[in-house]
């Protein structure tokens, strides 16, 4: 060996480093092309699929979930138009929660766009053409348009001076003036008393004219809103069974108002009670093809499936014996949830920091992921092994769907417009999650480093041949 090395010239070392640099460069280019086209590393895929079984490991890739039929996909597409902004069913209280955050941190938790959408909602829900007949309602109609919170609160007090039974004035004070949930609940109880009285009057005369029908519709919206917020107050104050009863009664009394997604409030409260059988019953009713999906529906279904196997689940054991039927069902449910909203796992696994959820969310977007994880992270932590199972399986969805903007297995392709809407809904200090943004695999970094290193050696050998020969021999 010594004789052989002593006969090698600088030209040989230069040719060797140039050749190795060229070959590693070709490997790097091929890896990059394969990743761009198929979304996976070729070297990693070959090692997992072909080399791992040869050295004793079992292939642990669950079968892809069965896709819906074409008709089901059409129904989903009709019911979930791209980038439609929805009212957050679990939005916080402005005075008691959002304002408190601003006092402590000095940061605005709500964007102007989000608050403007809420102002439009309030005008649609709480006003109608007959407001001119009641002076207090006329004042409140102007109050919902005010941009300054203090001006809105002042207008609410003016409405109460004109009519002590103005339900919408109590609603505004509960949302914005009350600094604690206890104070908000007191205002809402006053609003409920006034709202029920006005609602009964509207019921008696709603058939007299179209104006009276519009008034009944408005008074119904006020009553439902107040009852829902009272249930949320009870939930926040620890009276969970009372909150569940109020939500169930509200859903029975107004079954046609399912678009308000009260069932998502109910799911969260039942999970807090650990009433998993009741959660499954609610999912059986609302996790339907004809209804719009949500992260709460998809991830709660995955959580229940994971609960059945997560305590005993081990990746090493599963790779040796394969997945059981229950584990396959759990993995498929997680893949389904991740395909619907791919932003949620990083929040549940605490790989990304949470902020207060906005008042409006974009389904399948980062805003919906923040809103879901903010309330449901504790429920995943409570079930032993559920987060471990999620961590082991959620990235498999991205390998199954290399081009989520162009195709999907269970849902229509991921909308391409979510980033813009999420940036308007979420505060500026929050780093918006963007999908699909594939992270480069290890072997692309490795081959790029190898190519760069060998090219550098070739350059040094060309510039300092004698020194590099001595270094190589040493």
Low-confidence stretches: 57-81
The proportion of strand residues reads under 5%
User: What's the total count of β strands?
Assistant: 2
Binned, the helix content reads 55-70%
- Number of domain modules: 3
How many angstroms does the end-to-end distance come to?
A: 13 Å
Alpha carbon gyration radius = 30 Å
Based on Cα principal axes, name the global outline.
elongated
Main β-sheet description: 2 strands, antiparallel
As laid out across the biggest beta sheet, the strand order is 1-2
Give the count of helical stretches.
24
Family: Belongs to the ST7 family.
Organism: Sclerurus mexicanus (tawny-throated leaftosser)
Transmembrane segments: 12-33
Membrane topology: Multi-pass membrane protein
């Amino acid at each position: 060996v010594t004789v052989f090395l002593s006969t090698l010239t600088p030209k040989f070392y230069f040719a060797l480093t140039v050749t190795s640099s060229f070959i590693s460069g070709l490997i790097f280019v091929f890896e990059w092309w394969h990743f761009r086209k198929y979304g996976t590393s070729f070297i990693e895929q070959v090692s997992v699929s072909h080399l791992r079984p040869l050295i004793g490991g079992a292939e642990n890739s669950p079968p892809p979930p069965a896709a819906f039929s074409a008709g089901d996909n059409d129904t989903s597409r009709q019911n979930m138009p791209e980038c439609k902004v929805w009212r957050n069913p679990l939005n916080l209280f402005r005075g008691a929660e959002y304002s408190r955050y601003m006092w402590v941190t000095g940061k605005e938790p709500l964007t102007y766009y989000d608050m403007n959408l809420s102002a439009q909602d309030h005008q649609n829900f709480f006003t109608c053409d007959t407001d001119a007949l009641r002076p207090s309602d006329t004042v409140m109609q102007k109050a919902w348009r005010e941009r300054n919170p203090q001006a809105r609160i002042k207008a609410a007090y003016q409405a109460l001076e004109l009519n002590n039974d103005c339900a919408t004035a109590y609603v505004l004070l509960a949302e914005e003036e009350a600094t604690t949930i206890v104070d908000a609940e007191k205002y809402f109880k006053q609003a409920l008393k006034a709202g029920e009285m006005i609602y009964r009057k509207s019921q008696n005369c709603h058939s007299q004219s179209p104006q009276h029908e519009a008034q009944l519709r408005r008074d119904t919206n006020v009553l439902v809103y107040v009852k829902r917020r009272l249930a949320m107050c009870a939930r926040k104050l620890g009276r969970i069974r009372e909150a569940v009863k109020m939500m169930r009664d509200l859903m029975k009394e107004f079954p046609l108002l399912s678009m308000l997604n009260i069932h998502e409030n109910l799911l969260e409260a039942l999970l807090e009670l650990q009433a998993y059988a009741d959660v499954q019953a609610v999912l059986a009713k609302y996790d339907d093809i004809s209804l719009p999906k949500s992260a709460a529906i998809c991830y709660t279904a995955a959580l229940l499936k994971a609960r059945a196997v997560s305590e005993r689940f081990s990746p090493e054991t599963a790779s040796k014996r394969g997945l059981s039927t229950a584990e396959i069902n759990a993995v498929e449910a997680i893949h389904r949830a991740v395909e619907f909203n791919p932003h949620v796992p990083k929040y549940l696994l605490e790989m990304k920091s949470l902020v207060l959820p906005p008042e409006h969310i974009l389904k399948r977007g980062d805003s919906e992921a923040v809103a879901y994880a903010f309330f449901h992270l504790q429920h995943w932590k409570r079930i032993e092994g559920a987060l471990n199972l999620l961590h082991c399986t959620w990235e498999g969805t991205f390998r199954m769907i290399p081009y989520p903007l162009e195709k999907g297995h269970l849902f229509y392709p991921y909308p391409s417009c979510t980033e813009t809407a999420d940036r308007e809904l979420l505060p500026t200090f929050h780093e918006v999650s963007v999908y699909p943004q594939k992270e480069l695999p290890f072997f692309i970094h490795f081959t790029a480093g190898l190519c760069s290193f060998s090219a550098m050696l070739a350059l040094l050998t060309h510039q300092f041949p004698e020194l590099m020969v001595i270094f190589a021999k040493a």
